From TrEMBL:
Superkingdom of origin organism: Bacteria
Keywords: 4Fe-4S, Iron, Iron-sulfur, Metal-binding, Oxidoreductase
Source organism (scientific name): Rhizomicrobium electricum
PANTHER family named in the record: GLUTAMATE SYNTHASE [NADPH] SMALL CHAIN (PTHR42783), GLUTAMATE SYNTHASE [NADPH] SMALL CHAIN-RELATED (PTHR42783:SF3)
Limits of the Dihydroprymidine dehydrogenase domain: 25-135
Protein name: NAD(P)-dependent oxidoreductase
Listed SUPFAM superfamilies: alpha-helical ferredoxin, Nucleotide-binding domain
Length: 477
């Protein structure tokens, strides 16, 4: 029904409504309303159905976006859901947290022509939320059961995607995770105002109901070495993510009340579950009544500044060494933070933390952008004599994450890593130097996006299946 599409000339871009900043900063609920059916169909009908769909090309999962937009415009939502989940194990989660402005929507042809992008993420969220509400998301039902078993280390997006793909093929799958809930940073790193936790929990339950076993509070290296896990299974997939916070080496960095971003976010999310969190209750990881400075410009920094506001911070500032146009995080999240009252100090670099036992302020250098570096981005350089001091009694470091040193942590000296600490794999097979041990997600590519982790989990599952079937054939010969 071609007449239902190509309406971008007559229909403007329209996002779901947002709760007002004063209201939404009082809680940790999601800030966006749901599309109504008519509005979702209307916005989907703006798609130009490109012969070469750049939205799909620039999606790490190569999601069939034009197809499910067309089906949505025609009111065929169950089919749209089937197309959406065919390439994505966590579509309603990606619809919420993917930086669409940098991926699919940022590459939309009608956006480039000045008509405003199709609201791809909001429609994706609507399709798949509707599918859950109507019972269209079916339990996992393998066509056959296989004797081989898989061990997956890490219950984040890469591990969950890999587990689902392999369980669909009938393998026995066990997922090991150090935390007490499955979901990785989707549960403990991303705040509820971007992703409410029941959204992740129902995906995990679907996997459990489909026969996947979760062993939580299980830390490889403490409870069992990698070799013992490998001996127990026919193949293993390492998907631990990266958790080690990058440090800032300036005077005063060892003062109290200077905390890593992930510690701060995990404490907040655990508190939202009703868990006992002593460092939250005693104020160490709680912004209530404090002047908060967050150092960094990525999505984690945006999660921290917006969480601090909801905890009742007196003031919240974000210190970033480049300007707004060069921020690595989603500009949509920056806009949300600005609406909610976060103060951004662009082109600033902490030179020292001030205080006696706990931090009381930050000495900051003003910067300007100079010549481009090797990545093509302009390098910041200090403006002499332009320092200033900003009051802060809680500083949150959101400078990015590096891998833990897994050969030592896993008691696995045969596991080789790069100079950055990421696990080395053969790109064509995703296998490490240990036969039958595969790896993917952030522990291989470095800190990245949930959508890339899902892609790695799916690719690893396919590679593991190929390798396992080759093992079966060799044993039969």
């Amino acid at each position: 029904m071609v007449e239902k599409m190509l309406k971008f000339v007559s229909l403007g871009r329209d996002m779901p409504g947002k709760r007002q900043p004063r209201e939404r900063t009082r809680d940790f609920h999601e800030i966006y309303a749901e599309f109504a059916a008519s509005k979702a169909a209307e916005q989907a009908s703006r798609c130009s159905q490109c012969g070469v769909p750049f939205c799909q090309v620039h999606c790490p999962l190569s999601n069939n976006i034009p197809d499910w937009l067309k089906l949505t415009a025609e009111g065929r939502l169950e089919e749209a859901h089937e197309v959406s989940q065919a390439t994505n194990n966590l579509p309603e989660i990606c619809g919420r947290i993917c930086p669409q402005d940098r991926l699919c929507e940022g590459s939309c042809v009608i956006e480039q022509s000045g008509h405003g992008t199709v609201t791809i993420g909001a429609v994706e969220k609507y399709i798949n939320d509707t599918a859950w509400e109507n019972g269209w998301v079916k339990p996992l039902q393998p066509a056959r059961e296989r004797d081989q078993s898989i061990g997956i280390i890490g219950a984040g997006p890469a591990g969950l995607a890999c587990a689902e793909q392999l369980r669909k093929k009938g393998y026995k799958v066990t997922v090991y995770d150090r935390h007490d809930r499955a979901g990785g940073l989707m549960v403990y790193g991303i705040p509820g105002f971007k992703l409410e936790k029941h959204i992740v929990a129902r995906r995990v339950k679907r996997l459990e109901d489909g026969g996947i076993v979760f062993k939580l509070n299980f830390e490889v290296g403490r409870d069992a070495s990698l070799d013992k896990i490998r001996d127990k299974h026919d193949a293993v997939f390492i998907a631990t993510g990266v958790y080690r916070a990058r440090e800032i080496e300036v005077p005063g960095a060892n003062l109290g009340a200077i905390v890593p971003a992930l510690d701060f976010l995990i404490a907040s999310n655990k508190k939202s579950f009703g868990d006992d969190v002593p460092d939250y209750d005693n104020g160490k990881l709680n912004a209530d009544g404090k002047d908060v400075a967050v150092i960094g410009g990525g999505d984690t920094a945006m999660d921290c500044v917006r969480t601090a506001l909801r905890q009742g911070a007196k003031s919240v500032s974000c210190l970033y060494r480049r300007d707004k146009d060069n921020m690595p995080g989603s500009l949509r999240e920056v806009a949300n933070a600005e609406e909610e009252g976060v103060k951004f100090e662009w082109l600033t670099l902490p030179k020292a933390f001030l205080g006696m036992e706990n931090v009381e302020g930050v000495r900051i250098a003003r910067q300007r952008l100079g010549a481009p570096d090797t990545s093509g981005r302009k390098s910041p350089e200090e403006i002499k004599g332009a320092d200033f001091v900003q009051k802060a009694d809680l500083v949150i470091k959101a400078l990015g994450f590096d891998p833990e040193y897994l050969p030592m942590k896993f008691a696995a000296p045969r596991l080789t890593v790069s100079k950055w600490g990421t696990v080395r794999v053969r790109p064509s097979t995703m296998m490490t130097d240990i036969p039958g041990v595969f790896a993917g997600g952030d522990i291989v590519r470095g800190a990245s996006l949930v959508v890339w982790a899902i892609r790695d989990g799916r690719d690893a599952a396919a590679a593991m299946h190929t390798w396992l079937q080759a093992q079966v054939r060799q044993a039969a010969e």
